[in-house]
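Predict the assembly for these two chains.
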Amino acid sequence: MAQEKATAGARISELKLPSRSEDFSEWYNQLVLRAELADYAPVRGCMIVRPYGWALWENIQQALDRRFKATGHVNAAFPLLIPRSFIEKEKSHVTGFSPPPMETIIGHAYAKWIQSYRDLPVLINLWNSVVRWELRTRLFLRTLEFFWQEGHTAHATFEEAEAETRQMLEIYADFAATDAAIPVIPGRKSEAERFAGADQTYSIEAMMGDGKALQAGTSHNLGQNFAKAFEIRYLDKEGKLQYCWTTSWGLSTRFIGAIIMVHGDDQGLILPPRLAPFQAVIVPIFKSDEEKAAVMERARKLRGELAAAGVRVTSDEREGLSPGYKFNDWEMRGVPLRVEIGPKDVAKGTVVLARRDNPGREGKSSVSQDGLAGAVARMLDGIQTALYQRALAFREANTREPASYAEFKAAVETGFAISHWCGGSKCEEQIKEETKATMRCIPLEQSGQPGRCIRCGEPATEKAIFARAY
Amino acid sequence: MAQEKATAGARISELKLPSRSEDFSEWYNQLVLRAELADYAPVRGCMIVRPYGWALWENIQQALDRRFKATGHVNAAFPLLIPRSFIEKEKSHVTGFSPPPMETIIGHAYAKWIQSYRDLPVLINLWNSVVRWELRTRLFLRTLEFFWQEGHTAHATFEEAEAETRQMLEIYADFAATDAAIPVIPGRKSEAERFAGADQTYSIEAMMGDGKALQAGTSHNLGQNFAKAFEIRYLDKEGKLQYCWTTSWGLSTRFIGAIIMVHGDDQGLILPPRLAPFQAVIVPIFKSDEEKAAVMERARKLRGELAAAGVRVTSDEREGLSPGYKFNDWEMRGVPLRVEIGPKDVAKGTVVLARRDNPGREGKSSVSQDGLAGAVARMLDGIQTALYQRALAFREANTREPASYAEFKAAVETGFAISHWCGGSKCEEQIKEETKATMRCIPLEQSGQPGRCIRCGEPATEKAIFARAY
């Protein structure tokens, strides 16, 4: 027992995180490891996604997959290995479109499968991992191998492909807001930031807790470029051979980085209830064996009731660890709601609910054990909403519409600048050089008010978001 | 319309399969392609799992994953890339245990994560793909890359590891019987067939439609071999450093091959309702536009009712294809139940249900549209049971207990032989040479009656299953 306590003591001190405001970057790195979301793999720049991180990814997968299937998409799996000849072929595309390796296999298959208009649309999504060279890596944000989904669709007309591209962008935005409690700005990329081979690239952009932007999902209208590179053609109803119009869209484990950086605090993660592997954790509190028996019995009963009501709940029955240690431990892991139950609660028929988004006394309330599942469900809904509102308020507080280029420079030091932009890549480049901010997107929602480019002063019809980015 | 009919005609003729009894192997190869379960990838020996095949695999994944999680397992993801030094280290293991690449990364991580008895057991499962060299390949059965799950667990004692190994074997057997309608024989492998590095390998063995055996899942008790190779140790309650006891277990897309070969017939696939991507397909039948309007309206209403009741249902609304073409097409794809609805059915308030496991008039029945969901659910249960019973009866009819080695040789020409075996690898080798049959497993269920080895005549205490195998 003495040894157990010593171990517990050692662990608590290990759990101290650097402060988020003092060193955001180091806070992030340590949090990922200490919450056991991921670990460094023995190959530089690769990661092991640990069970807790993978459970979070599985919930993200389900939330997206449900939406993909509801809009008619199906999943498939393409092989890891591609012929050497494909890699060599890539370099010589007359269209100037040099697709990543996986896309050459997909192009090859679609050219074979698609013969007539009857075979369209093809609406395939893949859940897999990709390996890409990266010089500087960070867990979830930038690794040599990352996990994602990639959708690849083929259509008979430009209009259908564009509608698909926009539909998937909307799905990403809805998932981010509804499930991840992250407000995002859906918009168009500039030509410079566009995916090679795309006629149009759209993205959702989110503001992290340090005011920087993170591109959290992309959707590309590939026009006929991809179809021409791979000879993906179909016989139309009139018997004429036509090139297909294709799209691709993806969201990756990078999104986990966004969840961490948008919601987390100095105590650790804060997970949105809809995606949290555990939505609630029961912590039994007792001193004597007699107290333990009564508390554990009640804790198990309540756990059963919560689980039966569909709450993802766990109970921390670890021996030899103090309640305080357990509180810290689950706060680090971001479980949205803690259910404390001690001997007094057993006697009174109550429990204490402690909200992760509002640590300390303020977020605590004593509620009846009767109808606990209902109270928990309501509080989880409340936390989900509160996290979204807080993230939105933070983004609004850190988004400025600068009146001058000097104000613009100041704005992108701490957040987003939304400014008229002439659309020229020269201004885009100069802004990047002078401020380190990149053109994140031209929001789909525009006031329509004309103005003058923040950099060159020429007339401009659209506003764009500029920010430093991950 | 004329062109559409011509296309349909061409497709029907394409759909003719070789007969299962005449050329089982070619029947299998063509069926996989024509049911659009998988396709050959441009790299020799690799496969693309097409959406219909992947939907089947997703249902297999869910059926297994539910069982894994109910027994305390969690999923994670390990990287594709491993350091070159690991590959070199593999060759020099003093224990003589040369693990596959993925296991070196897992060993490395477990050695880091596991410190004390508090960290045990570790119950991790991975859903991923593996690349292995194969000379002769066949879709699903043997490909360079295949999809699977691999469980890797670490325990404090031998007893716990053995209990885990057996538990996972039981889970595989239960999944095969309950969800895939495939009766399997759970048993121990011989030393020769054991996984390198395992103290004990268990497998489930199933009989295919040609009488050959297929190993459909394996579970290994690795003893302390794996832990010693990677220095996976823990401090026990007394503060002493101990090696862990580990297990591993896997089931792959090979299992799809088993489903095809156990249940399929000359018309194509027959999928067990619990795993079928579509459990029922509605085929509307009409001639005039007036009939079409009435039939389609009713078909859509019924589709909605079935879907609301949890039936995985689709409706074949393709234009320009005859009902006969559609019947063949869905039979090829193995949808367990077809719901036919024509103008007379609309008038009478009935539909015709046609069972895939009993093609032709015999399997057809007219039922009321009222309460259709209940009737469909009952019939799907009936099909699930019938498929299992049929597979079991087939296996029993083709399993012999030969009285002599001559009878043994005849038995393994067409099915399984169950015979006393001395346990010697010499007899095992000779049997393989002389009959092409391998020792599949020593069934866990034994009568306990002693006897004499079928090959050498020496006393033997256990019976083993011998068969030619995939």
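The radius of gyration of chain A is 25 Å. The interface with chain B takes residues 3, 7, 39, 41-43, 46-51, 53-55, 57-58, 74-83, 86, 105, 108-109, 112-113, 116, 118, 124, 129, 131, 144-145, 147, 239, 318 of chain A (CB under 8 Å).
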